[in-house]
């Protein structure tokens, strides 16, 4: 085929040029995002039910929802968590479930359940989790001094949000920190009492004054009109001018007996930026949008906002595109240094400037054509797919060097230019195909991992397969064509001989080769002993998901563990920020209940998340220590967690699930075990190191007990008492004013006093208008209760989290404890998912090794020779482990990718070495040289032939990666473990390919014996 194509260089050149043009066109249409669009197989149903206890939310809301969802297709698990005023149900599906259909089905079931849910509760929100739900940037909106906060909330909701949503590539704009304007009606209790008015008279007057006609129409000749009442309320003054009729028929204006004014609604949460109350807008991109095009539009829009709305300050924070830019920069760095060092190494080893030019053309050409594969497989350009391209670049350079070196060698042997290009490619063609297939055999099966990891590996596997397949196309067609064209008018003398450096290296190689083969058995045994020694270094490695990245920001998650309101929570955070003034550059906090539509975390008024950005690592560490001391001294009961602020990767990979959770249920009552009884039970718990799960966390509460006998004696109804309590303590909604799409609630407000004073100062009216103080019928007691009620498919459970390394060793003891206490127990947590992933990984690894063996057996037509390649892999892996340990690097996702890169190159070198030995043995037999003599000649000669490409590819790859070690920043931190893996593996791997392969081949050939080597040429 090569011969045919080289005979038509113009046609081949034009075909490649057309491929490049089409690839560029397709590249321009590819979406660019931070992460691939992954549907996490979870749906969260969020419930917001103001003024409701966790027990009531569980009983009246979450339990009916759970029971209604159990028949969903593909449902794997269902859990719920009820808190004060809020709750959520988390639905987990099989990973193969079509989440679009599941989302529709969940919403349909919620609509069917509406009649069985409380009438006064808003419809539950259904949130579907997707990698595109992670915001790409946050916009801070800070009202200036004296500006009405409610007006800024309306501006954000009606203008800023809509203008951002109109930008190309923006899918959703989410807001937190909004506060709505309300009309507050505060009764003047002494005046009302003196005039004989009751709160119910005031409420009735406002409701009557805001009534609308229910679609009544009148005819006027041939025209028909809909009626509306002209008395409809519009302003606070209209409310104040309403007449209120008392029980004795007397009428006064409402403003005479109550204060009516515009104010802000009672907040359940706040957002602070640099300690100031503000709003935050999170921007989410469309799946097919290009992040690098969307982000400039957002920055441009914010500049226009600053001009159009000078009464408000704007600032963008937590820009996630920095991660994508780091990935693109890493790829550019790999290309630049890969080409630069390939040029330098080729020139040093060959002394010919045309060779580097050929590689300089082939590298970007391969990369551009790879994007055509992205287009057909619907893969976006993201950090994962870019890392796959970077992974394949090492193999691409490897293939290019091997092909060019072989063509050059044929020229040195006397072949004509045309014949050298044809024979040089044909000799290594099958070996290169096998090396690519073996690399894919190691890597592609990882796609079948379940969960998010498998979905991420899909993009990486496609990108690796794309660039490796294209690298073969380039190596077999474009490289010989470029070589043919560049050397067409040059004679054989233009191919310079080996450089002095390489001749010295070759001399050293031969000397060491002969020494190894003076006692080949001992040499092979030493190399085999190195395998367990090197692999043993894994026990010193820390295992983690992502490499530790130097971050100058922290996220502080707080739970005050006190029944405080949102305003007190805000005041405490502001006081904390005052203590840290000048020690941070950016401070951002979400306090209390979040208003984000896509927020699926815990929502509680006494909780807060504080984000701090620092100028350097020292300030970050000092403030972290200061925070710990601050809470120990001033708020010892508070729970605080200080951790690095999560980026998009952390948000996707992190799990809120505990590592090992013991769940127990009361089989008799089907309800939570009370705090006192539970404390007694846990004294006998077999594991000492445990922490409470959500269902065991306690909080203070006030219990109102009504005296029903006294109510009946005084002729009062229970509903009267309940209505009075709702008006007194709740944020009581009287009615709404609706105009021009804006809704202004009218709410009843009471004095902000302690509940005991309010019960004494407020009254309930019985027969003939006799007033009785509320505290006559209510007894208040303080008590502790559980802050959350947790449940799963089979009902309410409580749990503890075990903080030990081997939790499964206590399973039998825990089961015995549960039986003795009349509890049922089961185990859950991330530990079991990790164990399942490890089992899958081991299974996939075995499949990969089998595929590798079968491909090599077909290539070598031998059942023994593939074992040589397989045994080279542990040496490379051990070398990588050793370097990771020496550099203090953990075993993580990036270092694992580095292992795959390194193994791909190692396998390539070993395959070509064995293929060359086999080919030389056949040639020697054809010339009458057989047996041990043919074997020794082939081993010696193959070492000479393959030395240059093996050393060149290893040095080129290592030198291309070395700059990352000395670089700083997010991209370098992510890539550094990969670099150490490759450097460690290739250092040992190069030595393995040079000496271990011939030694192992020598003994597996069955023709071993004493060996004598001369200068075999």
From TrEMBL:
The chain crosses the membrane at residues 12-30, 331-350, 357-377, 383-404, 436-458, 464-486, 522-541, 841-860, 867-887, 893-912, 950-972, 978-1004. The keyword Membrane applies. SUPFAM superfamilies: Multidrug efflux transporter AcrB pore domain, PN1, PN2, PC1 and PC2 subdomains (SSF82693), Multidrug efflux transporter AcrB TolC docking domain, DN and DC subdomains (SSF82714), Multidrug efflux transporter AcrB transmembrane domain (SSF82866). InterPro entries: AcrB_DN_DC_subdom, Acrflvin-R. GO terms for cellular component: plasma membrane. One of its GO terms (molecular function) is xenobiotic transmembrane transporter activity. It comes from the Bacteria. Keywords: Membrane, Transmembrane, Transmembrane helix. Pfam families: ACR_tran (PF00873). PANTHER family: PTHR32063, SWARMING MOTILITY PROTEIN SWRC. This is Acriflavin resistance protein.
């Amino acid at each position: 085929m090569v011969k045919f194509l080289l005979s038509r260089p113009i046609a081949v050149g034009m075909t490649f040029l057309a491929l490049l043009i089409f690839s560029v066109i397709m590249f321009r249409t590819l979406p660019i995002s931070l992460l691939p669009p992954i549907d996490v197989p979870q749906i969260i149903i969020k419930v917001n039910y103001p003024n409701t206890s966790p027990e009531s939310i569980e009983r009246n809301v979450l339990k009916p929802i759970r029971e209604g969802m159990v028949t969903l297709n593909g449902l794997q698990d269902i859990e719920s968590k009820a808190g004060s005023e809020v709750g959520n149900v988390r639905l987990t599906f099989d990973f193969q479930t079509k989440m679009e259909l599941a989302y529709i089905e969940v919403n349909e079931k919620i609509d069917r359940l509406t009649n069985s849910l409380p009438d006064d509760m808003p419809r539950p929100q259904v949130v579907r989790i997707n990698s595109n739900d992670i915001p790409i940037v946050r916009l801070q909106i800070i009202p200036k001094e004296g500006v009405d906060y409610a007006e800024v909330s309306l501006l954000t909701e009606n203008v800023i949000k809509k203008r951002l949503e109109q930008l190309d590539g923006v899918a959703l704009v989410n807001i937190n920190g909004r506060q709505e304007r309300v009309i507050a009606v505060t009764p003047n209790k002494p005046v009302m009492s003196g005039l004989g008015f009751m709160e119910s008279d005031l409420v009735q007057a406002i409701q009557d004054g805001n009534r609308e006609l229910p679609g009544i129409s009148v005819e006027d000749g041939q025209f028909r009109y809909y009626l509306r009442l002209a008395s409809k309320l519009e302003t606070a003054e209209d409310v104040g001018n309403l007449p209120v009729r008392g029980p004795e028929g007397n009428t006064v204006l409402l403003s005479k007996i109550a204060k009516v004014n515009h104010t802000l609604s009672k907040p359940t949460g706040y957002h602070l930026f640099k300690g100031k109350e503000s709003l935050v807008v999170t921007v989410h991109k469309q799946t097919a949008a290009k992040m690098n095009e969307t982000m400039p539009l957002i920055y441009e829009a914010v500049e226009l906002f600053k001009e159009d709305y000078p009464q408000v300050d704007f600032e963008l924070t937590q820009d996630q595109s920095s991660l994508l830019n780091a990935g693109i920069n890493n790829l550019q760095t790999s290309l630049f240094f890969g080409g630069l060092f390939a040029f330098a190494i080729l020139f040093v080893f060959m002394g010919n400037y045309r060779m580097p030019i050929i590689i300089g053309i082939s590298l970007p050409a391969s990369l551009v054509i790879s994007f055509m594969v992205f287009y057909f497989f619907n893969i976006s350009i993201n950090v994962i797919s870019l890392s796959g391209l970077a992974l394949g670049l090492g193999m691409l350079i490897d293939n290019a060097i091997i092909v060019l070196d072989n063509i050059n060698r044929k020229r040195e042997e006397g072949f004509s230019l045309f014949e050298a290009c044809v024979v040089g490619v044909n000799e290594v063609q099958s070996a290169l195909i096998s090396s690519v297939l073996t690399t894919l055999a190691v890597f592609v099966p990882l796609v079948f991992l379940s969960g998010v990891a498998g979905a991420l590996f899909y993009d990486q596997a496609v990108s690796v397969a794309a660039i490796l397949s294209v690298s073969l196309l380039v190596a077999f067609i474009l490289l010989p064509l470029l070589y043919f064209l560049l050397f067409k008018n040059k004679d054989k003398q233009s191919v310079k001989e080996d450089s002095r450096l390489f001749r010295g290296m070759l001399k050293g190689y031969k000397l060491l080769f002969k020494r190894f083969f003076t006692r080949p058995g001992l040499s092979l045994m030493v190399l085999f002993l190195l395998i367990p020694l090197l692999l043993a270094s894994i026990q010193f490695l820390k295992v983690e998901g992502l490499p530790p990245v130097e971050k100058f920001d922290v996220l502080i998650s707080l739970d005050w563990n006190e029944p405080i309101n949102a305003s007190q929570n805000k005041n405490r955070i502001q006081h904390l920020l005052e203590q840290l003034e000048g020690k941070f550059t950016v401070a951002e906090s979400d306090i209390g209940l979040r208003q984000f539509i896509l927020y699926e975390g815990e929502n509680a008024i006494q909780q807060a998340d504080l984000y701090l950005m620092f100028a350097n690592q020292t300030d970050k560490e000092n403030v972290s220590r200061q925070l710990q001391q601050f809470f120990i001294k001033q708020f010892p009961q508070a729970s605080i967690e200080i951790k690095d602020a999560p980026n998009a990767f952390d948000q996707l990979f992190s799990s809120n699930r505990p590592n090992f959770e013991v769940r127990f249920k009361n089989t008799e009552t089907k309800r939570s075990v009370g705090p006192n009884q539970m404390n007694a039970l846990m004294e006998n718990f077999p594991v000492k190191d445990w922490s409470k799960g959500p269902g065991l966390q306690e909080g203070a509460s006030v219990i109102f007990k009504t005296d029903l006998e006294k109510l009946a004696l005084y002729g009062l109804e229970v509903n009267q008492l309940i209505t009075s309590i709702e008006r007194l303590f709740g944020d009581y909604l009287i009615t709404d004013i609706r105009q021009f799409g804006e809704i202004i609630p009218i709410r009843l407000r009471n004095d902000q006093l302690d509940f005991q004073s309010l019960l004494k100062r407020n009254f309930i009216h019985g027969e003939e208008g006799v007033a009785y103080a509320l505290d006559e019928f209510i007894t208040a007691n303080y008590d502790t209760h559980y802050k959350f009620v947790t449940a799963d498919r089979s009902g309410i459970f409580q749990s503890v989290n075990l903080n030990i390394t081997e939790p499964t060793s206590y399973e039998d003891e825990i089961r015995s404890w549960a039986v003795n206490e009349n509890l049922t127990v089961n185990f859950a947590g991330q530990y079991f998912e990790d164990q399942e992933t490890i089992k899958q990984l081991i299974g996939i690894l075995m499949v990969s090794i089998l595929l590798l063996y079968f491909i090599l057996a077909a290539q070598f037509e031998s059942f023994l020779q593939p074992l040589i390649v397989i045994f080279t892999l542990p040496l490379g892996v051990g070398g990588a482990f050793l370097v990771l340990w020496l550099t203090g690097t953990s075993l993580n996702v990036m270092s694992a990718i580095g292992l795959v890169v390194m193994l791909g190159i190692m396998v390539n070198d070993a395959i070509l070495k064995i293929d060359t030995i086999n080919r030389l043995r056949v040639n020697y037999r054809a010339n009458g040289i057989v047996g041990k003599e043919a074997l020794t000649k082939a081993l010696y000669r193959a070492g000479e032939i393959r030395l240059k490409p093996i050393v060149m590819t290893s040095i080129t790859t290592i030198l291309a990666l070395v700059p990352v070690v000395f670089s700083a920043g997010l991209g370098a931190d992510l890539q550094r473990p990969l670099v150490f893996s490759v450097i460690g593996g290739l250092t040992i791997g190069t030595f393995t390919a040079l000496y271990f392969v011939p030694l192992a081949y020598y003994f597996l050939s069955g023709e071993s014996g004493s060996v004598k080597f001369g200068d075999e040429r």
